[in-house]
């Protein structure tokens, strides 16, 4: 008998992965947490029945949400990461010697503990001396901040249910206040392909554009996410993601990557026609 894990990408679309073993299953105070071992994607972390990451393709997401802003801002020292309890984004950030502090705000401590055990490659830098973990609601945490950070990375799950508050105009406003005068905010924007995701993208992008003077969307191909097509938002008080991008400066750091390149950086901001029209409708 075969075991499969299936996730709804849309009401009429499922994505299924064959499972070798169900390694972990528990309901925390916030969500259902499951870890599967699969033949194609390695270990898979699912929250409330939705894939958060797989060992096979997590590098795409973590590199694109991290290295894009890091290659634009010339002097990022203090970083706030919201969500990302698996540790993948933190792992990428710790590769930059110039960063002095990484604050990680994760609502559910059990996500971090599960990843320490079952996804140690992702979680390996969570004990880095520059990393400070806060188990808190991000809205409450951010309200105590004013001009504290050079970069905020919002790595939360999709804008539905209890985390919908992380995609509101109020949330983006307090992120703006928590950033310094040249600060950057990057967030995951979901997929534009299915209608319910596209509607959420429109709402989120409109709110970010209304808050930040510079706001752009960029893209990546992530096989296990909805439609295999994922978007990120780049919002800044000062820096433009292409005009202020210095490829040579980033390349001189000598960071080895598996997805991100300086050529891909520029190309990721060139969007297909249907998506350009969708974004222009709300700008």
Notes on the protein architecture:
- The strands form 3 sheets. The chain has a 7-stranded mixed beta sheet, sandwiched between helices. A 4-stranded antiparallel beta sheet has the order 3-4-5-6, with helices on one face.
- It is globular and about 55 Å long.
- It has helices at about 60-70, 90-95, 110-120, 120-125, 140-145, 170-180, 195-210, 245-250, 260-265, 275-280; strands at about 5-10, 15-20, 20-25, 30-40, 40-45, 50-55, 80-85, 100-105, 130-135, 150-155, 180-190, 215-220, 230-235.
- Helix content is about 30%, strand content about 30%.
- The chain is α/β, with parallel strands linked by helices.
The helix/strand series, from N terminus to C terminus, equals EEEEEEHEHEHHEHEHEHEEHHH
Nearest-integer average pLDDT:
95
User: What gross morphology would you assign?
Assistant: globular
Euclidean distance between termini CA atoms: 51 Å
Level of helix content?
Answer: 25-40%
The largest β sheet comes out as: 7 strands, mixed
State the secondary-structure class.
Answer: alpha/beta
How large is the count of helical segments? 10
- The parts where pLDDT drops under 50 for at least 5 residues are none
**In what order do the strands lie side by side in the largest sheet?**
9-8-7-10-11-13-12
Instruction: Count the beta strands.
Output: 13
* Share of residues in strands: 25-35%
What gyration radius follows from the Cα positions, in whole Å?
18 Å
List keywords for this structure.
283 residues, alpha/beta, 7-stranded mixed beta sheet, 4-stranded antiparallel beta sheet, 10 helices, 13 strands, globular
């Amino acid at each position: 008998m075969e075991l499969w894990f299936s996730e709804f990408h849309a009401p009429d679309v499922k994505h299924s992965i064959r499972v070798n073993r169900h390694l972990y299953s528990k309901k925390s105070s916030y969500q259902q947490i499951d870890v599967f071992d699969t033949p194609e994607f390695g270990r898979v972390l699912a929250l409330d029945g939705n894939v958060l990451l797989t060992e096979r393709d997590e590098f795409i997401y973590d590199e694109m949400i991290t290295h894009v802003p890091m290659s634009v801002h010339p002097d990022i020292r203090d970083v706030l990461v919201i969500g990302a309890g698996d540790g993948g984004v933190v792992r990428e950030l710790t590769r930059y010697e110039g960063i002095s502090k990484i604050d990680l705000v994760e609502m559910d401590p059990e996500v971090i503990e599960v990843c320490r055990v079952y996804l140690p490659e992702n979680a390996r830098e969570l004990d880095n001396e520059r990393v400070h973990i806060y188990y808190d609601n991000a809205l409450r945490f951010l309200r105590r901040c004013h001009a504290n950070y050079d970069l905020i990375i919002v790595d939360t799950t999709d804008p539905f249910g209890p985390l919908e508050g992380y995609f509101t105009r109020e949330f983006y406003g307090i992120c703006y206040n928590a950033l310094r005068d040249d600060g950057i905010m990057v967030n995951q924007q979901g997929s534009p392909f299915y209608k319910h995701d596209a509607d959420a993208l429109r709402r989120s992008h409109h709110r970010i554009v209304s808050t930040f003077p510079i706001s752009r969307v960029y893209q990546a191909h992530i096989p296990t996410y909805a439609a295999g097509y994922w978007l990120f938002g780049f919002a800044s008080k000062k820096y433009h993601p292409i005009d202020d991008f210095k490829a040579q400066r980033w390349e001189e750091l000598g960071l080895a990557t598996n997805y991100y390149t300086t050529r891909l950086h520029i190309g990721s901001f060139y969007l297909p026609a249907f998506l350009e029209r969708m974004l222009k409708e709300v700008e």
